[in-house]
User: Fold these one by one.
Assistant:
Number 1:
Amino acid sequence: MAHRAAPTRRPGSTLEPVSGGGTMARSRARPVSSGWPVLVAVLALAPAPARAARTSHLFMDESQLLPEGDVELENWLWTEGHIPDKPGRPVTSWIWIGPVVGLTSHLELQLPVQLVGSPEYGVIDAISLVARYRFFSREDDEGFQSLVRVEYQQPLSQYASPPLLKALFVVTHGNLHAFRVTANVGVQLGLPFLQSSASGSVSVLGTASLGISIPLGTELRLAGEVDGQLPFASNARPYPGQLFAGPSLAWSRGPMWVTFGCVFGLTHYSNQYQPKVLWGVTF
């Protein structure tokens, strides 16, 4: 499969609480047929052709794509720890979840929703439309492979950043059964003029990442990455930029995959830690 840039909400963004709240209705659960647990166990344990995880990394994208016609439910969960230079900033958690559709052997679309929460609140933060285009067919897994990821993110709450347009160039070298190197270079544009309630000028944030991964048998990959981001405009966030590094472990079997790990801040302006888990199931 294929990674991901990073993610969608990058570390270090500042949240400002607003007044108001809501309630959530609790529905009565219906009895579940006793056959479902057996079916799930069979799908999980039965021998099946192994697929690579969409990414072996945490905040990087890779060049894998879904097969044409496949649909996957993908989920990311991560936490942003304290920033030494901003002791009052709370620990914040994020959830990214949505369907992924393989349209062709070159093109994939995603429609994720992003939620954010802290000890004081939790909101639906934003919705995105993501297109990932691979220059060579997904069946070609040798040598250099390149991919472009373009995302438009629309805020859904006053906690969120202004509308964002993100572009990421991805290049990998090495196949999924051997040592592999991955590099990401991207830019994120904050576009407040697209939202009547937002103010300010266009912001520009540059991102870059470098990662390596190696196979551990047929179902595991061990990876490491270095992620950096630097604002090119004074109103871009985070400011004055951040740098992270850390390991991850990816597991895949049949239609399921899981990647988890943690990156650690290398500067006083970076979050001290950012644990993350990503998983997906293909239907």
Number 2:
Amino acid sequence: MNETEVETMSIVKADRVQLGMIELAPEDVIARGASIAKALAKVIKDRQLYKEIRGRTHVMVEGWTTLGAIVGIMPRERDVKLLTAEQSLNGDPGYEAYVELVRVSDGQVIGGASAVCTIGEKNWSGRDEYAVRSMAITRATGKAFRLSLSWIMQLAGFDPTPAEEMPYTETLEHKATASPKAVNAGTKKPTTTSTAGTETPKIPTKIPTKIPARLPSWPAAYVKELIAQGLAENPQNAMSILVLSEFEITEPLQNVIRWAKIYRARRYDGMDTDMAANTARDEYENSQ
């Protein structure tokens, strides 16, 4: 190239758009998003993967990860760090997590977000450390999907803010760690059964480390549904999971499945059986 020549560059309009693992023409993106939203809405409603908060319907993280699975995007925990009181904006210690979104087809990182959970929050004061850490990861997961795919969630008819990011309007009673003084009047109480004049929580505080030799007679439909949804490998595994849930056998199937989905997700996070069961129960109760 001599001094009188000028190099020119042109902007080429992309003729394909990547939506997760789905490659589309730009004009087809909205139509495909609407189709995905319709299928997604049915799953979220059928499985009750949402929570009504202040008159709006907010989807829980399981609904957001379902959306990710549909388009071929999976969350991956990149970093979790402890926040001291000095590092936290509200002056309370806790955890900050960063979760990135990975495209399954090629492993490319295509998004991500950070989120925090501190013991200064109304529903997390006095909670076990692992539960606070886990909620930070859960919030970061929902937020990462929200930043990338909230438009599809809105097309499905839901509020774009994940349920875990919303402040709850009432304090839930946490049997394992919450101080009785921290529970406000009118707080929703856990279901209890009375024995000899005393009340025992329906879901015990601790998960047994050993499965009892004699398993309760859970309905066959519960075992079949756990296997059908990929939450258990076989009938024996399904029965073990049901025992770990510490629900009574009269518990509605949809509640047991919701707990089992959280439990399985925490096992995939690398938690051992006891910790995953405890964390799943905490998150399940917090979503009620």
Number 3:
Amino acid sequence: MVAQATHWKEIFLSERAGIIRTTILAVVLLVCAKAAHAIELRAETIDAFDRFVAAVETRLEPCFKGQHFIWSDDFPAVRQQLLNGAVIAQPLEGNGIIPLKGGLVQDWRGAVFVPHVTLQDVLSVAQDFDHHHVFYKPDVESASIESRHGEEFLVFMRIVKAKFMLSDVLNTEQTIQFIRLDPQRVYSRAHSKRINEVAAPGRSGEHELPAGQDRGLLWRLYGYWFYEERDGGVYVTCESITLTGDIPFGMGALLGPVIHDLPGEALRKSLEQTRRAVLAQNSSFKPN
């Protein structure tokens, strides 16, 4: 009886400690969100990010030509997980965080397999930007195609990001180009053209902050998507690259794990929602 009581006491204390830690983190994030002053995206940070992206696109050049097109094919265990229904999201190297002067790059890749559908089924969802607010809610609050020239789109998206009590609303424009290699394979490149944080969203004083003069929660958003039809379905993989401001001095130990987790969580969720939307379009049920 004494041992059992001790056991339950340890569980209680462990759960209570977890609740306390979560509460403290939420309060700190709220304070940071309210107290944070605008920080400026500096030219040296932009230059460093552009160099990083150029190196990524050089690395991906064989993929753009159809070689090692689906990254998960190089890892048989990962490929089997996908066929079994798993959604994979992992940092490309280390923890996925690359420090730059005045900012942080997050570089993650992910994959999902959508069974019993065609490449066109998947592209019908991927290119239906006017309904992305349905497929990818609540992260995408609204979306619309501003222009289209062939397979190149200019898309407006209002993005909402929330973690604990820290939230951010962003008005973005993205150029998205789809390139078809053959009847079974298509890839796309998505580059943010502008990202403006929205102050007082949903209230009478709502307005956009100048680009690069905000809290630095998202300055750049790039994505490289690869689609291939085979094995009775479609493989969808992505490499997602984002640029944010640096972690405030002295807050690394507390905020670091949250910032490290966000890109992976967002990518995994996006892949899950993509699969769900495609399957919903090809069955009797619809996404909630």
Number 4:
Amino acid sequence: MNFFNKKNSIKGITLIETLISVGMFVLISLGLFAVYEVFGKIYNLGGAHFTAVGGARASLTSVSNLTAQAYRVLSNRTINGVNYSSGSSTLVLQLPAIDSAGKTIDSAWDYTAFYVSSTNFYRYLEISTTSARIGGLKLLSNAIVSVNFSYDNLDFTQVRKVTAAVTTTAVENMVPVTSSASEQIFLKNY
């Protein structure tokens, strides 16, 4: 008689082996979930950073492009029935109108106002009938904390340089991300 017949032994896994396997699976799953959650938060924070930096940079680029083309800074101008006055948070410019080739049109002017309303930063462009610029209201950023314009002369007819500073913020999971940008811009005629 053979008491240790290996051919007839039943093969399988024990309860202990099953519990250890399930426990390892749970630990690995929890670890992967934690990694996923951390990378998700980092990704969202990166999106908030992109919103803040992009808003500041895009706003400043728009101001810079039109200010560099400006003939002069105006103390005030009524555009579409609203009076805008240049100051620390508003910039009003007179620009030479341009044709489709980008050349200036004699005795034709476009006017623009950059201004803040709540957390929104806008550019309103009023164009001459002969201008090739695209006029109207444009939202430059909806995440504005502050906009500051300063001028090299108190007399707006003598302004040669405008300094623009923009600060934006975006919030992700109660974490604010703030970005600031500033630039000195010389008017076209100087």
